[in-house]
Amino acid sequence: MTEPSVARIGARYHELHYSAAPLAATADGVPGYDDRLPDPGREAEERLVRQLEDLMTELDAVDEASLEGEEWLGQQTLARLLRYERDARTHALAEVGVSASTFGAFPTVIGTVPTASVATPESAQAYLTRLADLGEYLDRVGARYVAAAGAGRHPTALGVQQAIDQLDGYLATPLSADPLLRPEPGTSVDAARWHEEAAALVGESVRPAVARLRETLATRLLQVGRGDGEVGASHIPGGADGYRAAVRAHTTTDLEPDAIHRLGLDLVARLREEFAERGARVLGTSDVPEVLRRLRDDPTLRFASAGEIVTTVDDALRRAERAVPDWFAAYGIAPCIVREMDATEAANSVLGYYTPPAADGSRPGAHVVNTYDPTSRPRFEYEALAFHESVPGHHLQIAVAQSMTGLPEFRRFAYFTAHGEGWGLYSERLSDEMGLYTDDLSRLGMVSFDAWRACRLVVDTGMHHHGWSRQRAIDYMRENTALSTGNITNEVDRYIAEPGQALGYMIGRIRIRELRDRSSTSPSFDIKQFHHEVLGHGTLPLDTLDAHLARVFPAG
Questions:
Q1: 369 sits in which H/E element
Q2: For the chain, what percentages of helix, strand and coil (3-state, to nearest 5) are there?
Q3: Do residues 424 and 401 touch, judged by C-beta distance below 8 A?
Q4: pLDDT over 90 percentage in the chain
Q5: Measuring CA to CA, which residue among 145, 141, 147 is closest to residue 96?
Q6: How far is CA 329 from the centre of its chain?
Q7: Please, which pLDDT band fits residue 3 given cuts at 50, 70 and 90?
Q8: How confident is the model at residue 351 (pLDDT cuts 50, 70, 90)?
Q9: What is the DSSP-derived secondary structure letter of residue 234?
Q10: Any alpha helices (H) in 434-469, and if so which ranges?
Q11: Taking the alpha carbons of 26, 31, 34, 37 in that order, is the dihedral positive or negative?
Q12: How far is residue 182's CA from residue 91's CA, in Å, rounded to a whole number?
């Protein structure tokens, strides 16, 4: 009988994971899945859980004591990936996450499907195949929502209404401007014929399915949706256990929600002191409410146009790229571009996000930036945002992981929120060390972003564990950050739709900074080497990263 192997089990997990989540494969730049869509049915999810548990049993048979180096890192990574995906699929909180936020089903389609390459005849046909199946997929998404509601697991009424409004906005868009028709085929593709076939599929299949989904939401779910006082996971059957599992997965720790809530309160209090100090220097006042009011309401601190936002973000990215050699090892990685978020998605979406490059080089990494209603958007936020989403943040992190061709695929494309988003948040402060911010006002934006992520620890646990209302969460963030009211409400609605995910940012940032401080006491410490060890092994659970760095940088 063949001995169990981490590499073999990992390869099977990689295929199983992306077969069940082909839209994630497209988003992550993993080739071979761009003609597929997920099966959103409960039976498919239960089948996947059984398959994951079979792989967990096989991995348990591997002798951990015999592993070292990259093999040990792989075993630790795979064990967590299997456990966390099994738990997420078991508790199925996504079936109540009806939302217009980034985590909603339809925004995922609009934000992901058009990013697939259509450069070759094969990839162009794959895109058409996916479009042909998209109508049935959306019908099954609606059926899953209805089935969940039938079991007493209701979405929030506000999330349903926002999703309806988003679908109405999409349906009001002329077919010629449909975001699903955005891709431009390569020169080897008959572009005119491809556009004709794609437009026919969208007009005759996809859009009617969107209308049916809209009708399902309006007639079957809106009237039974949970009110704004019951937005947390604890208000649905099985939600409390599902939330604890989500907290474990997104933080890769065993921290309890109560402990995270208290940590957030302490951090917010300390950041108010930094607001006072920096506010006195930049705005002439140390009164924190006045500092926050000025940052939020002063019209002179707003952008004038969408183009100005794009220029600010692109300039920040290029400055960071020039500074990278002083802080990081040399890597041959894919380029990064700045792209405006599609209007269909932007109104209820976050400030920006990152999409990785395709592993085959057919697509660069992209910082997707929200330019909707630009005169409402503060200038001081977008440098920190750029450093988080592009360089030295997510693009450097993910493109480096993709370039590590010696690692098995399940590690190159794996993602743990605490490591991944913790690095993004660490990058915001690192960028100040690197001299990348243009002025003290932008550094105040950095502090506001820190406060934003600290508030997440309070409001995410507040809503999902302590039963806070949506309004209480909004009020808390307004009292303690400089984010606009629109951004705050979008953020809170995102936390409602994806319980626990927002906790990984600050938990991860704190731990990475602690590990850097500890490693710096080692005689062998070098900042470039430290950053390489954090980035050069793919995403890792925090305790695994801790053990690895302790070996690389032993105490003196």
A1: strand 365-369
A2: 70, 5, 30
A3: no
A4: 92
A5: 145
A6: 26
A7: low
A8: confident
A9: G
A10: 440-464
A11: negative
A12: 36
Q: What is the DSSP letter of 116?
A: S
Better pLDDT: 345 or 149? 149
pLDDT of 2 reads 55
Share of the chain above pLDDT 70, in %: 99
Backbone angles phi, psi at 14, to 5 degrees: -55, -45
Summarize the confidence of residues 141-154 as an average pLDDT.
Answer: 98
Cα four-point dihedral sign 257, 261, 266, 267 = positive
Q: Which of the 8 DSSP states describes residue 352? A: E
Token pair 């690389």: residue: 552
Q: Taken in order 339, 342, 347, 348, is the CA torsion positive or negative?
A: negative
Residue bearing the bigger pLDDT, 102 or 197:
197
Q: For residue 120, give the amino acid letter.
A: T
529 CB-near residues (< 8 Å, 6+ apart)? 329, 552
Amino acid, res. 519: S
Q: Is 302 strand, coil or helix? A: strand
Question: Which residues on adjacent β-strands are paired with residue 368?
Answer: 339, 353
361 sits in the region (left: phi over 0; alpha: psi -120 to 50; else beta) called: left
Q: Which tens digit of pLDDT belongs to each residue from 464-478? A: 999 999 999 999 999
Q: Give the model's pLDDT for residue 1.
A: 42
Angle, vertex CA 407, rays to CA 13 and CA 84, nearest 5: 35
Give the end-to-end CA distance of the chain in Å, rounded to a whole number: 46
- Classify strands 336-340 and 352-355 as parallel, antiparallel or unpaired: unpaired
pLDDT at 121: 97
Q: Other CB atoms closer than 10 Å to residue 496's CB: what's the count?
A: 28
Are the CB atoms for 218 and 161 separated by under 8 Å?
A: no
The closest alpha carbon to 305, from 374, 351, 372, 352, belongs to 374
Strand order, beta sheet including 336-340: 336-340, 365-369, 352-355
- What is the full DSSP assignment across 301-337? GB-S-HHHHHHHHHHHHHHHHHHGGGTS-------EE
